[in-house]
């Protein structure tokens, strides 16, 4: 039985808490923190279920020594590194919500820090723990589909104005001089990019390492960072990864990733279905109907209990973080889309924002594996590939963010 403490009782932290309560034979939630000023309903529910609730991380760590194994950190991006270090120093393993850090230098520093302790950190890119991704990855690495040649994806989600005003870091490049780089590639749709890189690699347990990143990052909402992205990664193995995403969808497009291999094409949809078409005409399907966060938590608990390596570690995520940083380097800035192409209207006591023609543009870019500017979008800004082979610090001297 894994004994776990949660930092937070609201928002996504409470969603995780509810999943933990679905597997009482695997994980016991012993404690959680809750800011008393915010008065989270989740805190009261935790108390009703005999979970100890503390006002601060320091107080909780002091009280749970010897009674807890792991701390889950589902906090704002800019706090990930400091809270992970604090948890490891207190003697706990860490389950760290994605992305691990905003910058590659922060990630590398955290990797070195972990090496100095007996405790370890897992990164919770939840879909990398699913049986469907693990099965596709195993088949790719075994050569069942032949060499991976190209990966392309599309995702169009909706985020209203209220989403970006819910916190002091939503839609921000940095907060209090700490990098956040919030947006499609580093937060809500980061799962798609991490999956793309993972399936682009034929090395077991690894993401494909980027050689160059070319990106166009746009903001449609009144934010600093990006809510719409179009990027191309060329990996060190010569695989092309093309990713398109937006949080300004006119109509929702649940994530679709196409993996083109020498002998087969994989169409991976909505994180739980995959259709494989072989060049000889044979077809296969894979489906995963499990509760995905529960599945992740079960695997994390099993790895801890059996002293096995975690599926996704800080080191696993280096290609992802380098890709995110390289995207901002290539784009230079996040580019605002001209107001003449933007439509705004009321929805659910907030404001929905869309770009005229973006839906069709994204679908065309996805099918052709091209960037928005390459299709002649009137508001698009052309960029050039940024070399990340020996990249170690964001931002470089090439840009001024």
Keywords:
single chain, about 400 residues, Rossmann fold, Dihydrodipicolinate Reductase, domain 2, 10-stranded mixed sheet, 6-stranded parallel sheet, about 30% strand
Question: Could you walk me through the main structural features you see in this protein, from its secondary elements to its overall organization?
Answer:
With 401 residues, the chain is of the alpha/beta class. Helices cover 28% and strands 29% of the residues. It contains eleven helices and 20 strands. The mean pLDDT is 96.
* Biggest sheet overview: 10 strands, mixed
Fold-level CATH name of the largest domain: Dihydrodipicolinate Reductase, domain 2
User: Ends: how far apart?
Assistant: 46 Å
Radius of gyration from CA coordinates: 21 Å
**Low confidence ranges:** none
Q: Which CATH architecture of the largest domain would you pick? A: 2-Layer Sandwich
- Please report the first level of CATH classification, the CATH class of the largest domain: Alpha Beta
Shape field: globular
**Would you identify the CATH H-level superfamily of the largest domain?**
Dihydrodipicolinate Reductase, domain 2
**Hey, roughly how much beta strand do the residues contain?**
25-35%
Number of helices: 11
Topology, element by element:
Layout (H helix, E strand, L loop, with lengths): L1 E5 L4 H10 L6 E7 L7 H8 L3 E3 L2 H7 L6 E4 L6 H10 L3 E5 L6 H12 L5 E4 L6 H12 L5 E11 L2 H4 L9 E2 L2 E2 L10 H11 L9 E10 L8 E8 L4 E7 L1 E14 L2 E6 L3 E6 L4 E5 L4 H14 L12 H14 L3 E2 L5 E6 L2 E6 L2 H11 L17 E2 L14
Parallel strand pairs: 1-2, 1-4, 2-3, 4-5, 5-6, 7-12, 10-17
Antiparallel strand pairs: 7-13, 8-9, 10-11, 10-20, 11-12, 13-14, 14-15, 15-16, 18-19
Helix pairs in contact: 4-5
């Amino acid at each position: 039985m894994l004994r776990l403490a949660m930092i937070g009782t609201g928002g996504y932290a409470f969603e995780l808490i509810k999943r933990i309560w679905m597997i009482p034979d695997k994980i016991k939630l012993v404690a959680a923190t809750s800011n008393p000023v915010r008065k989270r309903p989740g805190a009261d529910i935790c108390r009703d279920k005999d979970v100890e609730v503390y006002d601060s991380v320091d107080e909780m760590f002091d009280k749970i020594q010897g009674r807890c194994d792991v701390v889950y950190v589902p906090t704002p991006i800019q706090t990930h590194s400091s809270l992970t270090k604090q948890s490891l120093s207190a003697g706990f393993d860490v389950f760290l919500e994605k992305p691990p850090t905003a910058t590659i230098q922060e990630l590398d520093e955290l990797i070195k820090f972990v090496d100095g302790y007996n405790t370890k950190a897992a990164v919770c890119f939840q879909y990398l723990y699913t049986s469907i991704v693990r099965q596709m990855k195993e088949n790719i690495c075994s050569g069942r589909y032949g060499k991976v040649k190209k990966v392309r994806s599309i995702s169009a989600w909706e985020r209203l104005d209220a989403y970006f005003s819910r916190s002091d870091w939503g839609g921000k490049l940095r907060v209090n001089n700490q990098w956040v780089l919030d947006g499609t590639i580093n937060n809500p749709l980061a799962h798609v990019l991490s999956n793309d890189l993972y399936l682009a690699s034929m090395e077991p347990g690894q993401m494909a390492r980027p050689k160059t990143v070319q990106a166009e990052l746009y903001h449609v909402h009144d934010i600093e960072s990006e809510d719409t992205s179009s990027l191309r990664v060329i990996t060190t193995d010569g695989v092309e990864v093309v990713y398109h995403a937006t949080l300004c969808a006119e109509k929702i497009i649940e994530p679709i990733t196409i993996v083109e291999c020498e002998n087969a094409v994989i169409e991976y949809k909505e994180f739980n279905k995959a259709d494989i078409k072989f060049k000889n005409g044979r077809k296969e399907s894979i489906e995963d109907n499990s509760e995905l966060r529960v599945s992740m938590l079960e695997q994390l608990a099993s790895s801890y209990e059996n002293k096995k390596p975690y599926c996704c570690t800080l080191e696993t995520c280096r290609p992802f973080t380098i890709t995110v940083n390289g995207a901002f380097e290539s784009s230079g800035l996040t580019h605002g889309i001209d107001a003449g192409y933007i439509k705004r209207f009321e929805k659910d006591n907030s404001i929905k924002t869309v770009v005229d023609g973006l839906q069709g543009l994204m679908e065309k870019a996805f099918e052709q594996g091209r960037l928005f500017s390459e299709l002649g979008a009137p508001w698009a800004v052309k960029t050039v590939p940024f070399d990340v082979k020996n990249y170690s610090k964001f931002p470089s001297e090439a840009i001024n963010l």
